[in-house]
Amino acid sequence: MHSRIAADHAELTRLLEEVRAHAAGVLARMDEREVVPSGRVPEPEGLPGEGAGLAGALAAFADRWEPAFSASAGPRYLGFVTGGATPAALAGDWMTGVWDQNSVTSLDGAGQSLERETVGWLRELFGLPEGHRGTFVGGATASNFVGLAVAREWLGERAGVSPAEDGAGALGDVRVLSGAAHSSVFKALAMLGLGRRSLVGVPTVDGRECVDVAALEGALRDAGGPCVVVANAGTVNTGDFDDLRAVAGLRERYPFWLHVDAAFGGFAALSAAHAHLVEGIGAADSICVDLHKWLNVPYGSALQFTRRPDLQAAVFRNAAAYLRPLGETPDLVHLTPENSRRLRALAAWFALRAYGREGHREIVERCTACARALGDAVEAVPGLRLLAPVRLNVVCFTFADRPDAGRLAALAERVSGEAFLTPTVHAGVPALRAAFSGWRTGEADVRRVAAALREAVPRV
């Protein structure tokens, strides 16, 4: 054994305590850290030869890289739907590394059994029917990819071919309909060989991002055969929702696979005031939910649900002598693109076991209250205006006059020490958006963000 590794192994208890103390110090200072640090990112160094050992690596990381890291685990990182990791989720992620399980096969099955238990809890959390089966993937993009891969196989089933076996070209032209599809849907279509141009935009309701159901029915009629509909439960710009019940109802007259992108909007089911927004989601054929958003687990954790796990296995099955065959309950290796992966479910298991439905309901309701409060504060700032009502947890706003991208970028830069906001365009108007999903975020943080905006607007 290399001397550095042997020395670290011999002193592991002391070294892990050193790491724990350092991590605790970082988290204790997170609320007051610059959200986006103003310092420069370090220049890359060459590969070490001998190495510095664990303690030396920790010291080098703290000295060179930590000063450049954003406070994405803190309460005012609002640019993406990122909540940081709750204490239990952080502990679960640490234990994921400790046990280092590859949770995809029943040959070593405890990991995938824990994942199935966790998926069952999440299915109950989101109010989905028993017919939905779920698997963990790395994020919303991977979840949308898997859901649309199953949709592609469903189209093949209708046509008497198997795209997984014969290639996407066996389908001929494919039509995917959506009112305001997320960019990851286009990416998934490109990876699946269906092509970005297969997505046909359907008109949305005036002034909103939700699909016009009458226009969708017209597009389905024009399609003249089976197609795919991607519905939204929480759009990225304004947090808008398609009428999922009405969209699903169109299947009485037209054949289509219904995929719902509920990356963060699926969590509306936890709030009595917002659960109506996801009514009808259980009728979907596939659903994307991103857990490193509002479940507040570390990055790299999302769920993909489908009512057709048989078609999912037809796409992703992996035939190898060292793996179990498909069987009635396929191992997870047969259900997602990865042959091996970490036990992503463990952080979610810890979070759900620690805080349950009520703990996560409180996070959702506090975040939606914070979003409404910031929306009210924006409207009270001279020179700013909301571009859309605050429907859930996203606040989309711009300048009252001259809302050009350059001014908005300057405004975001001016407030970046207090809050991270990202640019967007809604209804052709450049804007900024703030998305609330953090377990640490509260009223005091809203006041700080509002104060930063009031101070910065006159200077831009």
Automatic annotation (TrEMBL):
InterPro entries, per database record: Aromatic_deC, PyrdxlP-dep_de-COase, PyrdxlP-dep_Trfase, PyrdxlP-dep_Trfase_major, PyrdxlP-dep_Trfase_small
Keyword match Lyase: yes
Keyword terms of this UniProt record: Decarboxylase, Lyase, Pyridoxal phosphate
Listed transmembrane segments: none
Gene3D superfamilies xrefs: Aspartate Aminotransferase, domain 1, Type I PLP-dependent aspartate aminotransferase-like (Major domain)
Family to which this protein belongs: Belongs to the group II decarboxylase family.
Protein's name according to its UniProt entry: Glutamate/tyrosine decarboxylase-like PLP-dependent enzyme
Cofactor: pyridoxal 5'-phosphate
